[in-house]
Write a structure and sequence with these properties.
Elements (H helix, E strand, L loop, with lengths): L2 E7 L3 E8 L4 E9 H4 L19 E2 L1 H17 L7 E8 L4 E4 L15 H5 L8 E2 L7 H11 L2 H8 L8 H11 L1 H6 L2 E4 H10 L5 E2 H4 L5 E2 L4 E2 L1 H7 L3 H4 L3 E2 L4 E4 L2 H7 L6 E3 L2 E2 H8 L7 E6 L3 E7 L11 E4 L5 E7 L3 H10 L4 H10 L9 E5 L12 E5 L2 H4 L4 H18 L10 E5 L6 H11 L3 E3 L5 H15 L3 H8 L14 H17 L4
Parallel strand pairs: 1-5, 5-15, 9-12, 16-22, 22-23
Antiparallel strand pairs: 1-2, 2-3, 4-7, 6-8, 10-11, 13-14, 16-17, 17-19, 18-19, 20-21
Helix pairs in contact: 4-5, 4-6, 4-10, 13-19, 14-17, 15-17, 15-18, 17-18, 17-21
């Protein structure tokens, strides 16, 4: 058997997915949900409560405990970790974990004690800012000014300074807690932190995830001196090396061999971000296929034939784990905004979908909404704005079906408006993420984008991509054969556009854009 493990450290959960390349099957797909399984961390949606709505942080020990819990749970359910031939991690992007000088002394974890208690004394910061944080607008401006302007930052790093990106987050930590920053000797992303846990000694950051820091020179693949200096003092010493996503990160620590029964010397591939991993999991590593990922955040991404940047500054360029570049546009008000509407009207997802598909019409009689329950990334909207436009019953909130259609259509229209800069018309659009199971979501996207939309058979493309990267690198399995086995779209659920609706959506798009424009900064 040849089996590869992908661990997906996402915002709300940690999942393990195992692919068996001999039988072309998925032999494990298990999740620890932070809200349901680790309630003591008070992070039902993955972040700690905070009085400031702009601040979103997680307890990194929650991720550490989740790792032990997940591995233990799978083992108790009879899964044999001995079968694993290679491991890689996918992590929510941009989040950062801060370690003190003692991190360097760690050569092995003690299998007699849980990981959590061993990691706690190594933290120089109790919390990890995550991608949902938007508290660093001042730091973004400071870094851009010190580096010579946002155009310079974009030219070097592929993105203008962005609130959730790691560089501005590091600068804010340095300003708020210079002592804590001074004590910090290693800063990891979520993907490299989890890989560090698995290895038990230092590991690098890959170009896919590293590009989400406003610190990496995309062309050379090295940390950029000008950006490092503009961000915080002595930062270079605190970062691990930046490496291609194909780099081996050593072997699993003995802790995992002794405690959970992994093979000795199980190879570890460097971790990467959830979106770069998802690009692989969707089989979209070549230009021509666009992916829409419907998770906590919605994202839209594709491999790029050349590293073009977004003139409006919302989109990003990251490293493509299979070589070259990828573009990405992130929409923070994804699943949580859909969830807000569903809960406001007390609907379950079946009722929500039935309202959209059976009881309302495309175009929603002109009803639409601004759905920014949290500050938005694309386009830049810094304050929450929730407003309905259209019929009185819809605006007063007494029409549940119209509200369900309005959130989906408004999200799809915004995604379409703000993905124009990519400039490459995809030959196909694939869709992934939890909400891709909802037929109403798929049909609305197909109608708005006027394209066939095919969901992947497996919904966790990020974890799948991590497992496939390990199979490609450690097992020598060609991408094409991996895609043929694991990345097949589910043809039976493909949503097809109704061509006559293009004309219906044109005026709605214009009306939506006009209202949205008022709040963009
Ligand atoms: C991408 C982004 C999110 C996170 C969490 O830039 O911020 O997609 O990776 O999924």
């Amino acid at each position: 058997m040849s089996c590869y493990l992908g661990l997906d450290a996402s915002t709300q959960s940690l999942s393990a997915i195992v692919i068996d390349t001999d039988s072309s099957s998925i032999t494990l797909n298990e999740t620890v949900n932070f809200g349901a399984d680790l309630p003591d961390y008070h992070s039902p949606h993955g972040s700690l409560p905070n009085d400031d709505p702009l601040v979103k942080q997680s307890d990194p020990l929650m991720w550490v405990e989740a790792l032990d819990l997940l591995l233990q749970r799978c083992r108790s359910a009879g899964f044999d970790w001995q079968t694993i031939d290679g491991v890689s991690v996918s992590g929510q992007q941009h989040g950062s974990v801060y370690l003190n000088a003692r991190y360097a002394d760690i050569n092995a974890w003690d299998p007699g004690c849980p990981l959590k208690g061993q990691v706690q004394p190594l933290l120089s910061r109790a919390v990890a800012p995550i991608w949902m944080d938007s508290s660093t607008t001042v730091e973004c401006r400071e870094i851009a000014a010190a580096a010579g302007g946002d155009q310079v930052v974009t030219r070097i790093s592929g993105s203008r300074t962005i609130e959730r990106f790691t560089g501005p987050q590091i600068r804010r930590f340095y300003k708020l807690d210079p002592d804590g920053y001074g004590k910090t000797r290693r800063i990891h992303l979520v993907s490299s932190f989890m890989t560090w846990l698995l290895r038990g000694s230092d590991v690098p950051i890959d170009h896919g995830d590293g590009a989400g820091m406003n610190l990496l020179d995309l062309a050379s693949g090295e940390w950029n001196e000008r950006l490092l200096e503009a961000t915080a003092p002595k930062l270079r010493d605190k970062l691990p090396p930046a490496v291609p996503s194909t780099t081996c990160a050593g072997f699993l620590a003995d802790y995992f061999v002794t405690k959970y029964g992994f093979k000795e010397k199980t190879p570890l591939l460097v971790g990467s971000g959830d979106n770069p991993n998802s690009l692989v999991g969707m089989g979209a590593i070549q230009p021509g296929t666009a992916v829409i990922s419907l998770g906590t955040s919605d994202t839209c991404f594709a491999a790029m034939s050349e590293p073009r940047t977004d003139p409006n500054g919302y989109g990003h360029v990251f490293g493509n784990p299979a070589g070259g570049y990828m573009c990405l546009i992130a929409f923070k008000n994804g699943s949580l905004a859909r969830e807000e509407v569903r809960q406001e009207f007390g609907l379950n997802w079946e009722q929500f979908a039935a309202g959209v598909l059976q009881r309302t019409e495309p175009g929603n009689h002109g009803n639409f909404m601004l759905y920014y329950y949290a500050p938005e990334i694309t386009p830049r909207i810094l304050e929450p704005v929730v407003e309905r436009f259209g019929s009185p019953s819809f605006c007063q909130g007494s029409d549940a079906d119209a509200a369900a259609r309005a959130i989906l259509e408004s999200q799809a229209i915004s995604m379409q408006l703000h993905s124009q800069w990519i400039g490459e018309t995809p030959k196909r659009i694939l869709v992934t993420g939890g909400a891709s199971r909802n037929p109403a979501v798929l049909q609305v996207l197909a109608d708005v984008f006027q394209a066939d939309l095919a969901p992947l058979a497996v919904s966790n493309s990020a974890g799948l991509g991590a497992a496939m990267r390990a199979a490609n690198q450690m097992g020598g399995h060609a991408w094409e054969s991996l895609f043929a086995c694991f990345s097949q779209p589910d043809a039976s659920r493909t949503a097809r556009p109704r061509r006559e609706l293009d004309a219906v959506y044109r005026p709605l798009r214009e009306a939506f854009a006009e209202k949205q424009r008022r709040y963009i900064v």
